[in-house]
Every structure is written in structure tokens, then in C-alpha cells.
């Protein structure tokens, strides 16, 4: 089967505007000429032979001609993971990349504005694409796994756009997007969908509420493509009422969807999908079931894990759990990897996040699980309260109390960090490794503040317990006491590996006894005796009174 690019580039009325910006408007007739001009320029590089070009234009008025011009010339387009010049240079040096199409004069490659505005009137015809022709290569976000490249064929791209055009039938609408075009959500909904509907794209880079409101009014736009993290900031009286909003890229909290819909008379279309599967389903209320898009069939295995089959995602297993309804709709039960066991008790991290989001002053929340070699699975919570936070914002003690009202104390995160904002990307995606880095940073700070230094005696260390040590926080609410688990993992285990570099992670402990409490400002001495894989330890305060003793058993590195 073949697919005609004219479905996006040609309209009955060629004078209709496809792009509007501060520099003026561009018609569909202009777009067709620009696409053919870019294609002719790319052909001067020789036959593509399956090679790729990177399209790294930030402005839609340049991005679209570059995209379709590359497809017209027979190239696969690769979208960069970001707009950093260094990333573009790295991609340009890879063998599969022929050149980079961009709109930043400082970069190497093809400067698209010069090509599309050259003035020549190409005479070529817009070609038809084979269904199995690979049109797109893009990068996953890496929020839940290692980032990887995903390819999309003409059949996948065109059939998905046809389904979206049936669901979001807004002809002649002008679309404004706060999501960058190199992200699949921004690419599909902010670039391809407006063209498929014969609408227009508002070429404006805006994020602040007043700028978004001004752009919506200036370009007479009623369709806004955005993310939950952006939506939180758009709750402003300056925003127009009655908008059609499409949100994706992250989980949309139900209370946020309801609050904004009621206050501003917005219809907020929540999109469920992923880079691998494309769009799967949508809903306009958090109390409604998810409705699969036209052509999408969903199913659940015996464990409730979602399986998707569509023309653009054939027989794909997902990491999400669902409850399937008889009419084909479904409710989400969370990700399979969001349920963890802490001290033998199961807890859904999403449920913890939802509870934190209901706390006063909390704008955003995330909970991550970390494996600790001594304590097993540990949970860390992060909440964003703005900068400066409102006076009503709950502090760490209040947040913990709110969680204890709903969850067993065993699964309530030991640490709840308040931040001005969570480290989300422009797409709204939250990179978990950045949160883990915050945890690791605090652990490293804690180790530094414990001041572990070798003593004169063999395998003996002196430890100064500073008053600001992080392990005094969140463990014993009424008194500052160094927890025994911190003594094992951040004193004994660290000291043992400094003495013997072949020791790996702690596998078990034996006869661990804690005889005295450790308070801020005290100086400890830890002495170690090794026998094969076991290390006998003693911790004393002021080199005299015994604080703790026992044996740790380590794995041995090869």
C-alpha cells in the first residue's frame, strides 16, 4: 500500500494558512514549494541509499518543510533527543547521518531558511510513499529504562494520523503547542495532526502563562497541545476560556484535570500512550474509562498486563496493568513496575504520589524505590512546592503524617524532600535517574559529614558524627539519634570496603547488637576483623563504651 504526502501538503484552497508566526503567515501553496525546494537541495548530496538526515529546526515554519522535504527526497528523518548543539554535532558524525537540517546559523549542515526562501519554483510532483518505508527514527525518553531509538514506517505514521483526525476533528483550527517537535507527542499532535486536518500551526515558543495566553489570543488558537507539568502553571485568569486541550507526556492528576476544566471551561483530552505504541486511548474526565482510538484493540493477560494491537503498534506488550470492560474501554491500575515490596508489604508508588499531591501546597510529586544492601527496598519521596513555597505548604513532618493516615508505616518513605520543582524535561517527562542522583548526592553528603578517617591501628577508623548529618532526619521525630542501619551501611560497610577492596555488597548480617544510642557531635571508633567473607565489627564511642557489634557477610568481587 502507498501513502500520498499530498494528504498533508495539498488542500482544495491552496491559499489557506498552514503556519502563522511573528514573521507572517505561510500558505499551503508556500509549503509545497518549500518542501520541493528542500528535497531538490538534498538530492544534490547524491542517492540516499537508506541514509538518514537529522531535522533539528526549532521553528515550525522551518521544521515542516525540512521534514517533508527529506521524505520527498527519500530520506529517513531522525529527530534528536534535544536541541543542544553538541547533540547535533555528535549525531552528524555518525555514519548513518548524511547531514543536519537546522535553523540556527551557527551550526553546520543545511540552513533550512536559505533553502526554502531561495525563490526557485520546483516543478517536481509530490511522491507517494511505500507503507513499509521507514520515515522516522526518534529516541525514547529513558524515564523507565535505557533510552533507545524507535523507528516509524509510513503505514504507522499515516494510519495513526488518520485515527487522530477522526477523534480530534477540528478543521481549520490553529494549534499552539508547548511541547517540542522532537518529542513524539509534540511531533504528532503539534505538527502532523494540524496538517492532516488542514489547520494551522502557531509558531510560537511559549511556556509562561501570560505568554501562552497572549499567543492563544494573537493567533486565534483554540487548540492547545501541552503536558501536565505545563498545565499546572497555566491556571491563570489571563487564560482564554473554552479551549480544547490535549495533554500527554506524563500522568495527568485527576484533581488537576477536574479543577482546570471547571474553572476555565476547558475540555482536557488526556492521551494514554508511549513512544513505542503511539497513541492508545483518550478520555476527558478522570472518572471516565479510557476509550481506545479508532483501530486500536486492547487486551489484558491473566495478570492484568496491557497488550495493544493497532496498525501502528502490532501486538505490543506494555508495562501497564488495566481492568478491561465489556465495551472495550478500560481503567488503568498503574504500571506493573510501580508496585514494589517494602519489608514484605506491597505498595503502589503511584498511590503514594497521588496522596502527596493532595497535600497543601504540593504542586508535583514523585516516589522512587532504591535497593539498599542492608535494608532492602527503600522509598524516597520528592515534592515540589514552588519557589518560594506558599506558607500553607505542608512540611516533611506533616507530609509523613498525611501518608501515615492512609498507608502502613512500613511503606511510608523515610525521606520526603521538598524541592522548588521536580527535574522534569520540556516534554513533562520526569527522569528518575535525576531523582536518584539527588538521593545519591545526599548519601554522599551524609558520608562526608560522618567523616570516616583511618586510625593508626590496622583496620580501625575514627568517625565524627556531625550535628547536621542527614541520618538524624526523619527517623526519630522527637530526638536526634543515629539509626543502627546507618551505622551498618554508612560506617561498617564503607570502612570494610576501604580496608579490603575485594569485598562486594553485604549479603547478610549476624548477631547484630546495638547497645548504646549515638547522638550528634560524638566521635566513634570502628574496628574490623576479617575472616574470609565475614567481617566482625565493633563500634565504640569515645574509644571506650561499646555502641554496637556483630558480623557482616560480604560477596567477594572476582
What is the gist of this entry?
The protein is an alpha/beta fold and 558 residues long. It is built from 14 helices and 32 strands.
Helix/strand-derived category reads alpha/beta
Mean pLDDT: 86
Instruction: Count the DSSP helices.
Output: 14
Which CATH C-level class of the domain at 13-156 is it? Alpha Beta
**What's the β-strand tally?**
32
At the third CATH level, what is the topology name of the domain at 13-156?
A: Rossmann fold
The percent range for strand residues is 25-35%
**The biggest beta sheet, please?**
9 strands, mixed
Write the CATH architecture name of the domain at 13-156: 3-Layer(aba) Sandwich
Give the spatial strand order of the biggest sheet. Answer: 3-2-12-11-13-14-15-16-17
Helix content: 25-40%
Radius of gyration: 28 Å
Choose one word for the global shape: elongated
Unreliable stretches covering 5 or more consecutive residues: none
Plain-language structure description:
- This protein is of the alpha/beta class and 558 residues long.
- Among the domains are: 13-156, Rossmann fold; 343-431, ANL, C-terminal domain (GMP Synthetase, Chain A, domain 3, 2-Layer Sandwich), CATH 3.30.300.30; 451-556, Roll (Thiol Ester Dehydrase, Chain A).
- Helix content is 27%, strand content 32%.
- The chain has 14 helices and 32 strands.
- It starts with a strand and ends with a strand.
Lay out the secondary structure:
Elements: E1 2-4, H1 6-9, E2 17-21, E3 24-27, H2 28-43, E4 52-56, H3 60-72, E5 76-78, H4 85-92, E6 97-102, E7 110-111, H5 112-116, E8 128-130, E9 134-139, E10 149-153, H6 154-167, E11 174-177, H7 184-196, E12 200-202, H8 209-218, E13 223-226, H9 228-233, E14 244-247, H10 254-264, E15 267-274, E16 278-283, E17 291-292, E18 297-300, E19 305-310, E20 313-324, E21 330-335, E22 339-342, E23 345-348, H11 349-357, E24 364-372, E25 376-384, H12 396-404, E26 415-419, H13 432-450, E27 452-454, E28 460-464, H14 484-499, E29 503-514, E30 523-531, E31 534-541, E32 545-556
Parallel strand pairs: 2-12, 4-5, 4-6, 5-9, 6-7, 11-12, 11-13, 13-14, 14-15, 25-26
Antiparallel strand pairs: 1-8, 2-3, 9-10, 15-16, 16-17, 18-19, 19-20, 20-21, 22-23, 24-25, 27-28, 28-30, 29-32, 30-31, 31-32
Helix pairs in contact: 2-3, 6-7
Amino acid at each position: 500500500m502507498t501513502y500520498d504526502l499530498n494528504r498533508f501538503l495539498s488542500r482544495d484552497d491552496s491559499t489557506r494558512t498552514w503556519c502563522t508566526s511573528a514573521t507572517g503567515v505561510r500558505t499551503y501553496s508556500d509549503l509545497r514549494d518549500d518542501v520541493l525546494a528542500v528535497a531538490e537541495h538534498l538530492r544534490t548530496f547524491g542517492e540516499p541509499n537508506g541514509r538518514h538526515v537529522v531535522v533539528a529546526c526549532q521553528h515550525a515554519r522551518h521544521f515542516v518543510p525540512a521534514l517533508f522535504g527529506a521524505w520527498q527526497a527519500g530520506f529517513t528523518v531522525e529527530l534528536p533527543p534535544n536541541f543542544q548543539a553538541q547533540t547535533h554535532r555528535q549525531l552528524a558524525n555518525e555514519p548513518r547521518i548524511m547531514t543536519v537540517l537546522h535553523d540556527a546559523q551557527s551550526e553546520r549542515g543545511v540552513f533550512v531558511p536559505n533553502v526554502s526562501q531561495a525563490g526557485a519554483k520546483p516543478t517536481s510532483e509530490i511522491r507517494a510513499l511505500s507503507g513499509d518505508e521507514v520515515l522516522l527514527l526518534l529516541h525514547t525518553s529513558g524515564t523507565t529504562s535505557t533510552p533507545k531509538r524507535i523507528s516509524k514506517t509510513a503505514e504507522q505514521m499515516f494510519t495513526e494520523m488518520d485515527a487522530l483526525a477522526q477523534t480530534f476533528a477540528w478543521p481549520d483550527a490553529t494549534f499552539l503547542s508547548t511541547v517540542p517537535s522532537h518529542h513524539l507527542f509534540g511531533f504528532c499532535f503539534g505538527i502532523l495532526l494540524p496538517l492532516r486536518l488542514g489547520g494551522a500551526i502557531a509558531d510560537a515558543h511559549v511556556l509562561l502563562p501570560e505568554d501562552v495566553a497572549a499567543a492563544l489570543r494573537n493567533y486565534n488558537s483554540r487548540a492547545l497541545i501541552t503536558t501536565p507539568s505545563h498545565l499546572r502553571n497555566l491556571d491563570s485568569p489571563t487564560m482564554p476560556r473554552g479551549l480544547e486541550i490535549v495533554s500527554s507526556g506524563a500522568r495527568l492528576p485527576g484533581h488537576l484535570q477536574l479543577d482546570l476544566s471547571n474553572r476555565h471551561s476547558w475540555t482536557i483530552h488526556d492521551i494514554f500512550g508511549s513512544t513505542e505504541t503511539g497513541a492508545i486511548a483518550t478520555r476527558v474526565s478522570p472518572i471516565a474509562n479510557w476509550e481506545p482510538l479508532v483501530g486500536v484493540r486492547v487486551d489484558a493477560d491473566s495478570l492484568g498486563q496491557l497488550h495493544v494491537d493497532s496498525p501502528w503498534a502490532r501486538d505490543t506488550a506494555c508495562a501497564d496493568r488495566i481492568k478491561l470492560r465489556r465495551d472495550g474501554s478500560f481503567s488503568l491500575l498503574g504500571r506493573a513496575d510501580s508496585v514494589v515490596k517494602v519489608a514484605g508489604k506491597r505498595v503502589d508508588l503511584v498511590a503514594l504520589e497521588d496522596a502527596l499531591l493532595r497535600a497543601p501546597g504540593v504542586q508535583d510529586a514523585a516516589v522512587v524505590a532504591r535497593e539498599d544492601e542492608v535494608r532492602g527496598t527503600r522509598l524516597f519521596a520528592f515534592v515540589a512546592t514552588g519557589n518560594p513555597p506558599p506558607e500553607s505548604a505542608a512540611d516533611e513532618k506533616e507530609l509523613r503524617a498525611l501518608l501515615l493516615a492512609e498507608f502502613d508505616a512500613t511503606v511510608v518513605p523515610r525521606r520526603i524532600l521538598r524541592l522548588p520543582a521536580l527535574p522534569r524535561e520540556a516534554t513533562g517527562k520526569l527522569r528518575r535517574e535525576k531523582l536518584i542522583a539527588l538521593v545519591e548526592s545526599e548519601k554522599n553528603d551524609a558520608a562526608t559529614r560522618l567523616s570516616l578517617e583511618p586510625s593508626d591501628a590496622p583496620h580501625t577508623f575514627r568517625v565524627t558524627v556531625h550535628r547536621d548529618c542527614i541520618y538524624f532526619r526523619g527517623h526519630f521525630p522527637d530526638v536526634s539519634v543515629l539509626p543502627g542501619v546507618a551505622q551498618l551501611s554508612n560506617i561498617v560497610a564503607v570502612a570494610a570496603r576501604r580496608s579490603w577492596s575485594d569485598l562486594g555488597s553485604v549479603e547478610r548480617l549476624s548477631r547484630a547488637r546495638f547497645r548504646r544510642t549515638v547522638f550528634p557531635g560524638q566521635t566513634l571508633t570502628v574496628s574490623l576483623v576479617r575472616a574470609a567473607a565475614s567481617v566482625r565489627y565493633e563500634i565504640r564511642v569515645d574509644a571506650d563504651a561499646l555502641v554496637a557489634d556483630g558480623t557482616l557477610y560480604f560477596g567477594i568481587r572476582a
